[in-house]
Design brief:
The protein is an alpha/beta fold. The chain is about 50% helix and about 10% strand. It starts with a strand and ends with a helix.
C-alpha cells in the first residue's frame, strides 16, 4: 500500500521552520468537513471516486481488437485527455515503440510539425485513432480529428470508420453525434468526471490495455487506496495529512510552490499530469498553489540549488520507489581511482535511493520542508494508487482553500477568445477584442 512520511515538514525534524502538531490539529474540523464532502459525494464531479467499480468490458474488447489489427495507435487529446495516458505509457511500458506493437503516438498539441512527423511514421491503413474529448468540441483535438478523418477517408473510403474510437460524453456533444451518425466505436467518459480527473476512465484505460497492461489491476489499486483514505482520524489518513501540510505551508507561510520529484524516469510524465491537476484545480479567485514538475536524480543537477538556497517559497514532494524490479551492478573497474572505486559493487537502485534520501535530508538541514510518498514498486496497481491519491489530495486541498476544485473558468475564457479568432459563430465580439488588443500592443513590438 502507498505510504507517506511528513516528518521533514514537522517541527520535531525540521526545527523552527516546521509545522507543529498543534497547527495540524487546529485544522481537524476543516479536514473532517472536506472528507465528509467526499464521502457524501456532495459534488457531482466527485464521480471519479466511483471509477474503480466501472464495467471494463468494452474497454478490454476494444483493446484486444486494436492489439490484433493495428500497427499504430494514435491518441488525439489535450490536457487531462493526454497527460494521463502519457503518464501511463511512460511508467508502465518505457521505450514502448522500440519494443512492442502497436506503436503508440500521443498528439496533444496543434503544432503542425509534430503531426506531420507522426504521420510520416505510420501507415494509416494499419492505424487506429482514439479521439479523446469529453465535451466533443475541444478545438485542438477536434482540429486534428478533422485532419485525420479526411486523410483516413481518402485512404480507406467507407472502411475509415472502423479505424476510429471516440472517447467522449455518454450522451451529448459533437463527437458523440459523429460517432452515432457514422457507427464509430465509442467509449464513455462517465457523467461528472471532468478531464483532469479522468485518467482512470476509458481516457487512460484503453491505452493501458493497448500497451498490454491489465487495467483491472490499476482500478484495484485505486479502489484500495480510496477506501483507505476514508479514515476520519487525520493522523491515520495520509491524504488528509498531505493536504494539511501543503495547505498550511501554502497559506500560512507563503510556501505556495509545490515541487513534485519522483525518483523514477517512468514517473516524469506523472509529474506533468500532477501539475495540470494541481494548477487547474486550485488556481482560482486569486488563490491556489503553483506546481513544479521535476524528476530525480536529474534535477538535483539543474534545480536543487534553487530549492536549497533560493527563495523560501517551496515545499518538495518526493515519490520514492522501494523496489525497481530490475537492477544493474556497478563493476569493479578503475579501482586505483579513489574518487570512483567507492561505487564498485553497489547497485544502481542503491544509488538512486541514496540520492533521494540524501536530498530529503539536505533540504531538511537547510530548513526546507519536504515530504515523501512511498510506493513498493512501479506497476499498474501502484499507478492506480498514485492517481487516486493525488486526485483526492487535490480535492481535499481545494475544499480547505474554499474553492471549487473541479471547474476552470480561466481556461474557458481562453477558449472563447480562440473561438472568436477562428471565426466560430456567436463569438464575433471576442474576435474584435483580440484585434483591438493587437493594435494596443503594436507600438511595443521591436
Amino acid at each position: 500500500m502507498l505510504r507517506v512520511n511528513i516528518g521533514n515538514a514537522m517541527e520535531e525534524v525540521l526545527g523552527e521552520k516546521g509545522l507543529t502538531e498543534k497547527e495540524v490539529e487546529a485544522l481537524r474540523d476543516k479536514l473532517q468537513d472536506a472528507l465528509s464532502q467526499i464521502k457524501e459525494r456532495r459534488w457531482k464531479e466527485l464521480a471519479f471516486l466511483d471509477l474503480p467499480e466501472q464495467d471494463l468490458t468494452e474497454v478490454k474488447k476494444t483493446g484486444v481488437r486494436i492489439k490484433k489489427e493495428a500497427e499504430a495507435f494514435l491518441l488525439l487529446g489535450i490536457g487531462g485527455s493526454a497527460l494521463g495516458p502519457k503518464a501511463i505509457l511512460h511508467a508502465l511500458s518505457p521505450f514502448h515503440n522500440l519494443r512492442k506493437t502497436p506503436r503508440v503516438f500521443i498528439y496533444d498539441n496543434v503544432d503542425p510539425v509534430t503531426l506531420r512527423h507522426m504521420l510520416e511514421l505510420i501507415d494509416l491503413r494499419k492505424t487506429v485513432v482514439n479521439v479523446v474529448t469529453k465535451s466533443g468540441s475541444t478545438a485542438e483535438t477536434v482540429a486534428s480529428f478533422m485532419i485525420l478523418w479526411e486523410m483516413m477517408e481518402k485512404t480507406l473510403g467507407e472502411d475509415a470508420r472502423e479505424h476510429f474510437v471516440a472517447t467522449t460524453d455518454p450522451e451529448k456533444g459533437n463527437l458523440r453525434q459523429i460517432a452515432r451518425q457514422n457507427g464509430l466505436t465509442a467509449l464513455d467518459i462517465p457523467e461528472g468526471v471532468v478531464g483532469r480527473y479522468s485518467v482512470l476512465s476509458p481516457v487512460g484505460l484503453l491505452l493501458t490495455e493497448v500497451i498490454g497492461v491489465d487495467s483491472t489491476e490499476m482500478l484495484k489499486g485505486a479502489q484500495e487506496l480510496r477506501d483507505r483514505v476514508m479514515e476520519e482520524e487525520p493522523w491515520k489518513n495520509p491524504a488528509l495529512l498531505v493536504s494539511a501540510v501543503l495547505y498550511l505551508y501554502g497559506t500560512k507561510y507563503q510556501r505556495d510552490i509545490d515541487v513534485m520529484v519522483p525518483y523514477s524516469d517512468g514517473l516524469k510524465y506523472f509529474s506533468e499530469w500532477f501539475s495540470q491537476l494541481w494548477a487547474e484545480s486550485l488556481g482560482k479567485l486569486g488563490l491556489g498553489f503553483t506546481p513544479y514538475p521535476s524528476v530525480g536524480c536529474t534535477d538535483q543537477h539543474s534545480q536543487l540549488q534553487l530549492w536549497m538556497d533560493g527563495p523560501e517559497d517551496k515545499v518538495v514532494v518526493f515519490i520514492r520507489i522501494e523496489e525497481y524490479g530490475d537492477d544493474i551492478r556497478i563493476p569493479f573497474v578503475f579501482q586505483e581511482m579513489e574518487g570512483l572505486s567507492y561505487l564498485s559493487g553497489h547497485m544502481l537502485s542503491e544509488l538512486i535511493k541514496a540520492e533521494q534520501e540524501s536530498t530529503e535530508l539536505a533540504l531538511a538541514k537547510a530548513g526546507r520542508p519536504n515530504l515523501t510518498v512511498i510506493i513498493p514498486r512501479l506497476d499498474a496497481y501502484y499507478m492506480g494508487q498514485l492517481f487516486m491519491f493525488f486526485e483526492i489530495v487535490t480535492a481535499i486541498t481545494g475544499f480547505l482553500i474554499g474553492i471549487n476544485p473541479f471547474n476552470q473558468p480561466g481556461v474557458e475564457e481562453g477558449k472563447r477568445l480562440t473561438y472568436g479568432m477562428m471565426g466560430k459563430r456567436g463569438f464575433e465580439e471576442r474576435r474584435r477584442e483580440v484585434e483591438e488588443a493587437r493594435e494596443r500592443k503594436r507600438c511595443w513590438c521591436l
